[in-house]
């Protein structure tokens, strides 16, 4: 399966996907990395590895819709089967999420449906959680609300700061995202009428 990755920043999850896809037996190939920020660190990292990149700066457009239209055109030049959001920090319109329904996935740094949105590590600590985690889900119009594909949990330790927790969770994200993308690329998890359905083993 051909995969385009959308980022806004450093792109460490993007890099985890690229590294997984180097293995010829991995069921997906990273064919493009796109960003709304021309200065996103991950764009340069991807280009240095010979991956096609494109920046579509949202600041150059009058509306969210106009930006997304240009972004879709840039994405479609790479003919991806699957779109992975990896720290892509723009809200998406329903038109955009509908276009890629069932083939666009996102990684979020919490055990959804707990803590959608920002500052998830701080909020998990404030809530007195003893575990924290990350979620890969299909993207729908509701932010961080789409059907869950895979999750990983980590323990919260006494004295953890939000930064320490974020660092430990990031390592778990880097393992989870390649696994979750493989589940979607092989059809082990499928989008069926707006739900994420696990294929039955042997079925
Ligand atoms: C990750 O924590 C991801 O879960 C969140 O944004 C961060 C992106 O980090 N959505 P990176 O750019 O992949 O390093």
From TrEMBL:
One of its GO terms (biological process) is 'de novo' IMP biosynthetic process. It holds the Pfam family Formyl_trans_N. Keywords: Purine biosynthesis, Transferase. Pathway: Purine metabolism; IMP biosynthesis via de novo pathway; N(2)-formyl-N(1)-(5-phospho-D-ribosyl)glycinamide from N(1)-(5-phospho-D-ribosyl)glycinamide (10-formyl THF route): step 1/1. The active site is at 108 (proton donor). CDD domains: FMT_core_GART (cd08645). The record marks 144 as: Raises pKa of active site His. It comes from the Bacteria. Residues 1-181 form the Formyl transferase N-terminal domain. (6R)-10-formyltetrahydrofolate binds at residues 64, 89-92, 106. One of its GO terms (cellular component) is cytosol. GO terms for molecular function: phosphoribosylglycinamide formyltransferase activity. Belongs to the GART family. Catalyzes the transfer of a formyl group from 10-formyltetrahydrofolate to 5-phospho-ribosyl-glycinamide (GAR), producing 5-phospho-ribosyl-N-formylglycinamide (FGAR) and tetrahydrofolate. NCBIfam families: PurN (TIGR00639). This is Phosphoribosylglycinamide formyltransferase. It comes from Aureimonas jatrophae. The gene is purN.
